[in-house]
């Protein structure tokens, strides 16, 4: 039983254009999800690089102790470049397909792992005093006394890495569900081969159904079928016919009929 307003015949299968349209819409939604996830990850990494990761208290013995601030960009140099690469991953997801998109997804996942490493050292490391004094190039006259680390930047980095991993997963799903390349992106040789299959398959079908006249010239029958195929098929068939003519090939002659 068909739904009201459904003009599709019960026994009619959806056309290739309709299927491609649905796949294109699904890809657009997945690209939107990827853009949001990678954008969130990039913002998280960039924000963490601007946050205060630790405060180091040191004294030189001649003045009161001084507090040195350790930013995320001091703690690690990775966060800002990784954020830029994640933003580039959004463009890569929109422009790549197939194995290229899978490779881009693996790169995004690797970036997430790299981003986690400094957060782990912040949250689980023991000797933060020596490390903090080293990364800010504290003057030699100061003696580090203690360091107070903040947990929040580490959590922000972990959330950003999680978003990047989820974005990589969606990229892999998109690569697996991508439709085959449209004929308008195929080479002329590939389109000619596809046209030959269509023309001669239709000619054989016409012969069986008695639509072809009793001419003894197989080329005449091929031309009749190709003409009907061009009329019944759509703009892609016309384009493939012109490609064949441009290269000097007769699209109405099958491979077995051509002279070696």
UniProtKB/TrEMBL annotation:
Keywords: Membrane, Transmembrane, Transmembrane helix
Top-level taxonomic group: Bacteria
Protein name as annotated: Trp biosynthesis-associated membrane protein
Polar residues biased stretches: 1-10
Bilayer-crossing regions: 31-48, 75-96, 103-123, 151-177
Keyword Membrane: yes
Native species: Williamsia marianensis
Keyword DNA repair found: no
InterPro entries membership: Trp_biosyn_TM_oprn/chp
Region annotation (Disordered) ranges: 1-25, 201-260
